[in-house]
Amino acid sequence: MSKKPENALRLLIVDERVEDAEALVSGLRNAGIAVRPVRAATPQELTAALAGPSDLVLAALATQALSFDDTMQLVTGTGKDLPVIAIAEQLDEAQYDAVLTAGARAVALRHRPQQVLSQVRNEWDDLEARRAQRRLEARVRETERRCDALIESSRDPIAYVHEGMHIRANSAYLEMFGYDSFEDIEGMSLLDMVGPQHVEEFKQLLKSLAKGEAPPPRYELEARDLEGNAFAASMEFTQAQYEGEPCLQVVFRRQEFDPELAQELEELRQRDQVTGLLNRPTFLRSLEDAVDDAGQHKGHHGLLLIQPDHYQRLLQDIGLDSADALMAAIGHRLQEVLRGEGLDGRATGARFSEHTLAVLLRGSDYAATSALAERILSAFSADVFSIGTRSSVITASIGGVQIGEKIASVSQVLAKATQGVESSSGVGGNRYEIFDPAAMDRAEEEHVRAWVARLRDALDHDRFVLHYQPIINLQGDTGATYEALMRLDPGDGQLISPSNFMQIAEDHALLSEIDRAVIGQAIAVLGQRIAANRPTTLLVKVTQAALDDSGLAAFIGEQLQAHGVPGEYLVLELPEAKVFTHLKATQAFADAIGRYDCRLALEQFGVGLDSFQLLTHLKPNMLKVDRSFIEELPRNEENQARVREIAKRARELGIRTIAEYVQDAASMSILFSSGVDYVEGHFLATASPVMNYDFE
């Protein structure tokens, strides 16, 4: 998705059954979408929910208390841009048409979670695009107002023309042609401003511009004012928009002197007088054109920013009065490179700031941009620079960007190039660093391949290791209980936590093998503890893949028998969200491991729409309270109440509770008085590769 990872989808679910609503939420969370859900089942609940912020509505068609038509009326009545996706148990053509006619943007079948996920992603993307468009439209309107004010205050005669007719003109334009107000020329043809001898040729020019052909840089002709007086003029054309309509911006200039001289003056106006390169405003216009081409036509261009290394020290050596001479020498050296063989005039150089030069290389790929950066570095370091009456060796730091469709923003391009300059300079200079978005994709692919190979090696050579964190009973039981925390040991002494690789493992169907490797190792350790007359209960996390592994229970039974371990010492943990969306599979899994007396625990418990509804269908042996309720527990009365409720209701059902992530004594006191059975966290003991906690 195009969303930022920190953005959560504010989801409003209209559904009578909390289990079905929870399944929808869990399916989205399992797909990596952060969701903040609210459920409504009655008109009153929906009205209250709609008063708050929402991004998307999932509305079940099969509801009794709140019909889909009533839902759509309430949603539409808010006046909000709030897309509705209808959730159907089954669907025929007539019902599909009726739902869309009622105003739903999409329909998805409840038993097709990938379809629901796809529709949610599409509608959320579309909503964000509409919101972005509205923000852009507001900015465009503000920009148009500012531009209008600037045009009006400009001394250049400027007009906007649509299909050859005037639709806007500033005061300088009206004054040049002798008109008092724009009303005098509104709707007048631009041809009326042109001398009769130029009319036919000018008509052809307007026709070509209307077809989207590029305008000439400068068009010279004889113009006529209101009184019929002729004067030499030049025109410059730019494609523009006025009040949302495409048009031409025309700058009309009276020629009071020799055209060739005017051209020379224009050239001088675009140049930096010290280096002879383009100045910053002119270069920025070229850069904007290149970025637009990348965004609209998928063009590829390279930008380089170049800074002389140790600039302040150079100035101290040659004197501050020689700063211009220094930049002139550097500019001259750069121009020599840009005139070099193979560039074919595609490279444009500019003085971008006081001591930063810039180069735009049009139509270049990453290799060509890098090659030019290499040539510039070599040219700088190859020969001594002559700076007035002095000389010096000068190297450069270069930061570059490969401009393409993925980075079609001038601000992003300049930011990345600046970062490259700073990075190159920070490690001593005389080097370049070029950001290439496409290279990121290639690097990510290589990164994934490397991880898959590393995981395969870890499975083949037993490189998964376990650390153990004590779980302390608050009710007086001194039996040893630990949670096994899996780590990957790549062999260099730096252990890697699962968060770095489990998604890759899931994407490449390695979770089931990892589950078996971890469970097998845990059972072997339990066997060693029993042999040493130190029986221990061990909680081991398993993944969703365990629910689909039909042979896992038998594997567990074989390992328990081989190591002489009673099954009651092994507790397998599954996240609540995974269980909610795979309830039948979890029930079957619990039954299968129960045959060997192994127990089941639910972790991350309490964050669902109605977590205790799950316990009417499944009775685990333990519940691990989600850590979000334990963080800042002493200062959060709402979390304290939630923990007490979970502990009370779990005890009524004969289920033990565990609070993890305990960080302070105040939390311990609250948990003890709340009736929680076990606690775990760094305040008590950190995870260790050995089981050495004293439970007595």
TrEMBL record:
Entries under InterPro entries matching the protein: CheY-like_superfamily, Cyclic-di-GMP_PDE-like, EAL_dom, EAL_sf, GGDEF_dom, Nucleotide_cyclase, PAS, PAS-like_dom_sf
Source species of the chain: Luteimonas kalidii
NCBIfam families with a match to the protein in the record: GGDEF (TIGR00254), sensory_box (TIGR00229)
Domain named GGDEF: residues: 299-437
Residues in EAL domain copies: 448-696
SUPFAM superfamilies: CheY-like, EAL domain-like, Nucleotide cyclase, PYP-like sensor domain (PAS domain)
UniProt-listed Pfam families: EAL (PF00563), GGDEF (PF00990)
Name of the protein this chain belongs to: EAL domain-containing protein
Segments forming domain PAS: 163-213
Chain ranges passing through the membrane: none
